[in-house]
């Protein structure tokens, strides 16, 4: 008796109560007779069995009409009769059920029934979990998409494997009750085992492989099961098939046309994955129908021209003219190759008759680097439109298989997907799975079975699909779009395809992949296979197909003829983020002057008071924070500011003017150095916070301050994308230490430094990089200013001449601005200037650490008063400036070292002999102001002093520019640390000795005498 087990899924039903008892550690559940009205209860097994009258009544009722009892009893009695020995099958005496051999035999039969049902349920689950491993995904039929030809042992691929489940061939035609966790039955609740296996193979082992059973949400799993298991669900109307064919024609013939016209040009075509174009259009159609009206896309170079032409609908003549070697570049920067360019276009979606805006973000060959940029741009559009659920704006990211598996930024981007301040409410990822990375076999390119396994970290479903089955691809794309609209979560489509040519059209793949490319050479084109299929089905005729091909070929020829009229390349035609209200129609700034950055006293006082208080009543703050706020209040009363208050004033004043401010990075809410405290935490109530900055003014813009994940590459890319969306916002990223920006170097090099030159992309992102030699070791000292300065484009040998404001014109000509502010007021001014300029340039600020609380690093409110502005250079204002002709030495410096120099000068009583001048804006170099200072101290020798090592810091940048200023008539001497490999020493004693040494040199009047 004790071995009885029955699953609820086997004995499922509705409405009738059931009896349940436990014996031997197992549970037996049996439905009661409906006429008895028994309620659920627990009884020992022997008591129930011994109640012969109860079972007899159930049995008699069943004999009268099988519908009198629940289906579980019906199944029980049927199996007893069917399996009883001859002569006993028709036994009508109910008492026989409770006596001797018949009772024993019937119980054994019931146990077998239950075990068989359990086995079938396990089999169904095995297909749901592992069916994708045997799906027919490779169009070439030579590789396994999961890199393993092993067939999971729990999948029924041969009859002998039935034995794993205690079943045999005789069970194939037995019907089994289906569990509620499958939809393969449609309206049927039971199916023969043979049909169960057939339907499971059709759902999970054909041209679609579904990975989803790792998702820890029952509703989401059920939703996916229904989409792939329901019989007949993957159906297309004739009209839908014709649309699919037309899109496939456009995709294929576009590549063919380019191949005919420019056979020796690289274009990174889609041959082998032509289905990508109808796939993207299906996603967009389905998303548009769900309410999406803006789609932001990122992709590598393969297929970009085709996407521009047939998805975004860039004019073909604009694309074709890119292949003209005689095309002259407009004077808008260096430009970029045609398969790196982006595009922004608003058009009608013909399937939904709704307006839709499509944007393809320009990006370099660093493949996945564009991922976080797209996410940031998407988040920004959602934010400014109030689209908190992502119902209007969405993103699509396309990837190559090798890069998706190999590039760490993919993981970083996925990990941003559900963080409150970074989520875009679901991204559809499309992996163009070439099954090869350049020349590298996937078996030595990744350790995971699939290139898409990284998506499992965020429970994103993964749909693998054979790219040579267009209808399967379209269905998967529909489901992906519906998933995103329903659950607002990421989803991955793995298009398993191939490259008909090599890495590019000029490459020879047979060198390294001879067997693959022998098969590819034999492979029939997907357009040919699908057109023949539809012709055979009678969906289209051969004539209609040929007419559609000829129609598109004619469009291409006409565009080709028109493209010959283009003589100049206008990069502005390829903008992915136009700011139509910011620039003139010609793309120029509307003025070339900067509004004043000074502020009224009442504004300063109001912001200061809010910054030093808690706007919410009954809010319990930490005593340490309370002391900080009291300190701020004292500063405000004395009309002084430290670094944190200067930043507060900059942000608050911009918010007053309707400028959104977003500060992001690791621990920025408090500040790494515990100086900021822009988010206050109630010490008594969990998750209760206060952001005083959002309580400054009644109709102010919103302030977003958010701690990021422990990522630099992904988060810097995200904030760059966010800044692309709106010029009237101050977007800042702060490094925990300036040194850490080096893990985001790809974004800095490829997008921030050169983005305007390559793609005419203005961007006003601000990087805050804590910098300074304070004995904290080589990883917490230098933000590597030399790297930023090396990438500036101003000419060291030429002093520019401008007719207007020198400082504004110089900023307009540069690629980015590099500053090291030494006062809170100057920091405030430069942040305000960033928005008040009539154009946008990236701003790199080397921010302090020790100066955050340095008693001398203070500013007065007068330094921010009306009429004041950012000081590119701060001259000496002490005794030396009163008698410049008597000054023997002028020390130019930047940043924190000024305070050490000033202290040393005072100690040595050299205030009249040595002038100390601070360069606050390093790049573009303030030639005009430096010239004035050099002329003022005409008799003095010139020193450049820095705390960084000689081969680092600013020296290599400033030296040639100083020599240009003095026309090489006098030298500029270096004072600082000697050259080194590491940015700083990790030994405190060594650090202090180095500092002492160069301080002595700086003020030794004979050190540079002949």
TrEMBL record:
Gene3D superfamilies: 3.40.50.12470, 3.40.50.970, Multifunctional 2-oxoglutarate metabolism enzyme, C-terminal domain, TPP helical domain. It catalyses: N(6)-[(R)-lipoyl]-L-lysyl-[protein] + 2-oxoglutarate + H(+) = N(6)-[(R)-S(8)-succinyldihydrolipoyl]-L-lysyl-[protein] + CO2. The keyword Phosphoprotein does not apply. One of its GO terms (biological process) is glycolytic process. It holds the Pfam family Transket_pyr. Its EC number is 1.2.4.2. It is an enzyme of class 1 (oxidoreductase). It comes from the Eukaryota. Its main location: mitochondrion. One of its GO terms (cellular component) is oxoglutarate dehydrogenase complex. SUPFAM superfamilies: Thiamin diphosphate-binding fold (THDP-binding) (SSF52518). Belongs to the alpha-ketoglutarate dehydrogenase family. This is 2-oxoglutarate dehydrogenase complex component E1. It comes from Maylandia zebra (zebra mbuna). The lineage of its organism: Eukaryota, Metazoa, Chordata, Craniata, Vertebrata.
């Amino acid at each position: 008796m004790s071995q009885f087990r029955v699953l609820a899924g086997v004995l499922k039903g509705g409405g009738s109560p059931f009896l349940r008892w436990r014996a031997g550690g197992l549970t037996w559940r049996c439905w009661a007779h409906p006429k008895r009205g028994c309620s659920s209860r627990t009884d020992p097994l022997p008591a129930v069995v011994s109640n012969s009258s109860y079972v007899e009544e159930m049995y008699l009722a069943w004999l009268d009409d099988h519908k009198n009892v629940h289906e579980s009893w019906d199944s029980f009695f049927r199996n007893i009769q069917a399996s009883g020995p001859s002569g006993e099958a028709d036994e009508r005496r109910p008492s026989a059920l409770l006596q001797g051999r018949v009772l024993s035999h019937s119980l054994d039969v019931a146990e077998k029934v239950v075990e068989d049902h359990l086995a079938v349920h396990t089999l169904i689950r095995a297909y749901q979990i592992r069916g994708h491993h045997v799906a027919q995904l490779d169009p070439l039929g030579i590789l396994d998409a999961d890199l393993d030809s092993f067939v999971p042992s729990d999948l029924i691929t041969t009859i002998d494997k039935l034995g794993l489940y205690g079943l045999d061939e005789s069970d194939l035609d037995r019907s089994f009750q289906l569990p509620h966790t499958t939809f393969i039955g449609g309206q049927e609740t039971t199916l023969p085992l043979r049909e169960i296996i057939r339907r499971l193979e059709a759902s999970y082992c054909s041209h679609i492989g579904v990975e989803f059973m790792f998702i820890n949400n029952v509703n989401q799993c059920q939703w996916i099961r229904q989409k792939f298991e329901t019989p007949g669900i993957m159906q297309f109307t004739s009209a839908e098939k014709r649309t699919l064919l037309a899109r496939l024609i456009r995709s294929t013939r576009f590549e063919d046309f380019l191949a005919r016209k420019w056979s020796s040009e690289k274009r990174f075509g889609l041959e082998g994955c032509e289905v990508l174009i109808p796939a993207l259009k299906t996603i967009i159609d389905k998303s548009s129908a769900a309410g999406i009206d803006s789609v932001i896309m990122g992709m590598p170079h393969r297929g970009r021209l085709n996407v521009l032409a047939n998805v975004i609908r860039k004019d073909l003549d604009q694309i074709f003219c890119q292949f003209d070697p005689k095309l002259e570049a407009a004077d808008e920067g260096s430009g970029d190759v045609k398969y790196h360019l982006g595009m922004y276009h608003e058009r009608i979606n013909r399937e939904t008759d709704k307006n839709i805006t499509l944007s393809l973000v320009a990006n370099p060959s660093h493949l996945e680097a564009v991922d976080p940029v797209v996410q940031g741009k998407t988040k920004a559009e959602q934010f400014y439109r109030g689209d908190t659920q992502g119902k209007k704006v969405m993103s699509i990211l396309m990837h190559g298989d090798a890069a998706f598996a190999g590039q760490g930024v993919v993981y970083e981007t996925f990990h941003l997907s559900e963080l409150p301040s970074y989520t875009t409410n679901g991204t559809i990822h499309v992996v163009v799975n070439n099954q090869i990375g350049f020349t590298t076999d996937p078996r030595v390119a990744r350790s995971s079975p699939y290139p898409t396994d990284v998506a499992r970290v965020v429970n994103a479903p993964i749909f693998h699909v054979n790219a040579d089955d267009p209808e399967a691809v379209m269905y998967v794309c529909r489901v992906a779009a519906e998933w995103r609209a329903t659950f607002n979560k990421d989803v991955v489509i793995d298009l398993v395809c191939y490259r008909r040519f090599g890495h590019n059209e000029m490459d020879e793949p047979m060198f390294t992949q001879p067997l693959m490319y022998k098969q590819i050479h034999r492979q029939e084109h997907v357009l040919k296979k699908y057109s023949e299929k539809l012709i055979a089905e009678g969906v289209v005729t051969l004539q209609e197909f040929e007419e559609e091909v000829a129609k598109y070929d004619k469009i291409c020829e006409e565009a080709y003829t028109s493209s010959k009229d283009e003589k100049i390349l206008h990069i502005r035609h390829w903008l992915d983020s136009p700011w139509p209200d910011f620039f003139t129609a010609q793309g120029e700034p509307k003025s070339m002057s900067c509004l004043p950055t000074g502020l009224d006293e009442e504004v300063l006082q109001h912001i200061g008071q809010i910054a030093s208080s808690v706007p919410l009543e009954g809010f319990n703050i930490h005593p340490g924070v309370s002391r900080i706020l009291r300190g701020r209040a004292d500063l405000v009363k004395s009309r002084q500011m430290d670094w944190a208050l200067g930043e507060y004033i900059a942000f608050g004043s911009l918010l007053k003017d309707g400028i959104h401010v977003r500060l992001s990075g690791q621990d920025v809410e408090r500040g790494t150095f515990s100086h900021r405290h822009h988010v206050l935490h109630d010490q008594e109530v969990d998750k209760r916070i206060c952001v005083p900055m959002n309580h400054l003014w009644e109709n102010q813009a919103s302030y977003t301050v958010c701690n990021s994940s422990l990522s630099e590459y992904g988060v810097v890319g995200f904030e760059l994308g966010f800044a692309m969306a709106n010029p009237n916002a101050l977007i800042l990223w702060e490094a925990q230490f300036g040194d850490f920006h080096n893990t985001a170097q790809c974004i800095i090099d490829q997008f921030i430094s050169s983005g305007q030159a390559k793609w005419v992309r203005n961007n006003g992102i601000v990087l805050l990089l804590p910098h300074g030699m304070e004995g904290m070791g080589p990883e917490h000292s230098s933000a590597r200013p030399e790297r930023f300065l090396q990438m500036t484009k101003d000419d060291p040998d030429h002093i520019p001449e401008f007719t207007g404001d020198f400082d504004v014109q110089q900023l307009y000509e540069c690629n980015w601005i590099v500053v090291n502010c030494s006062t809170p007021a100057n920091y405030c001014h430069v942040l305000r200037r960033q928005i008040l300029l009539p154009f946008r340039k990236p701003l790199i600020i080397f921010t302090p650490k020790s100066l955050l609380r340095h008693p001398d690093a203070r500013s007065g409110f007068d330094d921010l008063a009306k009429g004041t502005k950012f000081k590119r250079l701060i001259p000496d204002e002490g005794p030396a400036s009163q008698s410049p002709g008597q000054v023997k030495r002028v020390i130019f410096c930047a940043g924190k070292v000024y305070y050490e120099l000033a202290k040393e000068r005072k100690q040595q009583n050299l205030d009249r002999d040595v002038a100390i001048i601070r360069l606050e804006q390093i790049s573009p170099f303030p030639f005009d102001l430096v010239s004035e200072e050099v002329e003022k101290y005409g008799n003095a020798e010139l020193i450049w002093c820095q705390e960084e090592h000689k081969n680092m810091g600013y020296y290599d940048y400033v030296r040639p520019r100083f020599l240009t200023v003095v026309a090489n008539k006098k030298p500029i001497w270096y004072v600082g640390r000697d050259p080194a490999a590491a940015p700083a020493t990790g030994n405190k004693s060594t650090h202090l000795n180095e500092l002492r040494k160069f301080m002595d040199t700086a003020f030794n009047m004979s050190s540079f005498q002949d």
